[in-house]
Design a protein that fits this description.
Elements: H1 26-37, H2 45-52, E1 54-55, E2 64-65, H3 73-80
Antiparallel strand pairs: 1-2
Organism: Ruegeria intermedia
Protein name: Phage terminase large subunit (GpA)
Length: about 90
């Protein structure tokens, strides 16, 4: 067998159980990870659509924010698709 040709890198003295490693971008990675494990807000599909949905100029006669009030007949259909709906 051949002898190892690399030397051990110096240790910083920190244990492996203290969490985040020190490197560029570590805090951003941890921030993204923490936001990913946060539970989703308890919204119905229609509430989510009112907050986040945008209609484009090419796809809509009324571009901009989606408003469930413009299509009230869709509210119940969307809400029945919500995770919290008992049906």
């Amino acid at each position: 067998m051949s002898a190892p040709n690399s030397t051990a890198s110096p240790r910083s003295g920190r244990g492996s159980d203290d969490g985040a490693e020190e490197f560029d971008g570590a805090e951003g990675i941890l921030r993204a990870w923490r936001s990913g494990i946060r539970p989703d807000p308890d919204l119905t599909v229609s509430q989510w659509a009112d907050r986040h949905r945008r209609l484009g100029t090419r796809a809509s006669a009324e571009p901009g924010r989606y408003r469930t009030d413009r299509t009230p007949y869709m509210r119940e259909i969307m809400d029945r698709l919500s995770p919290g709906d008992p049906t």
